[in-house]
Specification:
This protein is α/β, with parallel strands linked by helices and 225 residues long. The chain has ten helices and seven strands. The longest helix is centred in the C-terminal third of the chain and has 21 residues. The model has no long low-confidence stretch (mean pLDDT 85).
């Protein structure tokens, strides 16, 4: 490991990130369920629903340092990798890696995700591909199914975020203090897909989506929130 770890001085100092994530936990009154399901070794995917730019900060704020050091966040190249402030902040705080939503001809949009998994990183992935404004969970794209096909036996953790859409709605400029619950589910069993069969990618992606939706039914009532 180390290929994708940010080498910016701010990242090496560590404390700016720790302060920011502590602020996120307090600002969002963050409640975390199922942290013990997140692996501490080996390649894995955190497959999360996506409704806010606050999502990644909340997930990283929930992880203890040993986990954070090995988790990368897959982010849209066209938005976050602009060689500006967004890229700097996302690389320093979340070790983001680019995903091409509109890949060039012959380009593998998941190239960096594949390499990260081969190097035993965990990857935070939003299979919807964009933020969902409906309040529900949109269709999952087949890319996660392709990764399941390429890495047989890959650990996939369904991850449910609730409340981040109120912390920072899609067009909001500043976050608002709202309670957030983050639920990590158990690894999804019996995930299979065939690299030569894109229909199997979509079927595997739908199984991951169903596991994320199912977490809503398992969610205990939040006390005094």
């Amino acid at each position: 490991m180390g290929m994708y770890t940010s080498h910016h001085l701010t990242a090496r100092l560590n404390w700016p990130g720790l302060l920011f994530l502590a602020f996120v936990r307090r600002y969002c009154s963050l409640q975390v369920i199922g942290l013990d399901h997140v692996p501490t070794s080996g390649a894995f995917i955190l497959a999360a629903n996506h409704s806010s730019h606050a999502d990644t900060a909340v997930i990283y704020a929930s992880l203890p340092p040993p986990h954070r050091k090995k988790v990368l966040a897959a982010a849209a190249r066209d938005y976050f990798f602009d060689n500006g402030l967004r890229q700097y902040v996302s690389r320093v705080l979340f070790n983001t890696i680019p995903v091409a939503r509109e890949p060039r001809k012959g380009e593998d949009p998941l190239r960096h995700v594949v390499r990260a998994l081969r190097e035993d990183y965990g990857v935070l992935l939003y299979p919807e591909g964009t933020r969902n404004q409906s309040g529900g969970i949109g269709p999952f794209r087949g890319g996660i199914g392709r990764l399941i096909a390429e890495f047989p036996g890959l650990t996939v953790i369904p991850t449910l975020l609730q409340g981040t859409d109120e912390v920072m709605p899609k067009k909001a400029m500043f976050p608002r203090p709202r309670p957030v619950t983050l639920h990590f589910g158990a690894p999804i069993p019996d995930l299979h897909a065939d690299l030569e069969d894109k229909a199997s990618w979509r079927a595997a992606a739908e199984k991951v989506r169903e596991a994320v939706i199912h977490l809503k039914d398992e969610q205990p009532a939040r006390a005094n929130s």
